[in-house]
Specification:
mainly alpha
């Protein structure tokens, strides 16, 4: 039995850090996340400044020019169609120039709202009420109205002028 005898020498255990897996978060990932956060904040601040820079008078003038051009495009159509188109054009103007939700409301909802057209003078509010009532009467008449499309467009153009010059401040 010439076997080697084993030595009972104690060895140092391996360090526990070697058994813990490496982290999946690398330093470059943290730097990239911080860079993305900085870029997102810069974009948000830039948009906020640009949104605040909008001039209400410039918006009104642009909406007026667009509405006037759209009214001029209404050609020889039946009076009911002219009234529908004119009403939509004027409600779009109110939506853009005054921030009024008239574009998304019926005629009855608009006139029943006590804060409707609050940024306009009393004369402009009264004229607008009569003008939209006339358009509604033409649009919803049981029989085809006996009016000329050019007359409807002219009335709508006058109403647009009243609205454009009827702002209080």
């Amino acid at each position: 039995m010439n076997e080697k005898s084993g030595s009972f020498e104690l060895l140092e255990p391996s360090p526990p850090e070697a058994l813990v897996p490496d982290s999946w978060v690398e330093p470059w990932m943290i730097a990239a996340a911080i860079a993305l956060l900085v870029v997102a904040l810069a974009v948000l601040i830039f948009k906020r400044k640009r949104a605040a820079a909008l001039d209400p008078l410039a918006m009104r003038k642009a909406a007026y020019a667009q509405a006037a051009a759209a009214l001029e495009e209404i050609e020889a159509v039946p009076a009911r169609d002219a009234a529908v188109r004119s009403s939509l054009i004027l409600r779009k103007y109110l939506s853009a120039a005054a921030g009024d939700p008239a574009l998304f409301e019926t005629h009855q909802e608009t006139i029943s709202r006590h804060d409707a057209l609050k940024g306009f003078s009393e004369e402009a509010r009264a004229t607008t009420g009569r003008g939209f009532a006339r358009l509604a009467a033409l649009k919803y008449a049981a029989e085809i109205p006996d009016a000329e499309a050019s007359e409807v467009v002219a009335e709508s153009r006058a109403l647009l002028e009243t609205l454009h010059h009827g702002f209080r401040a």
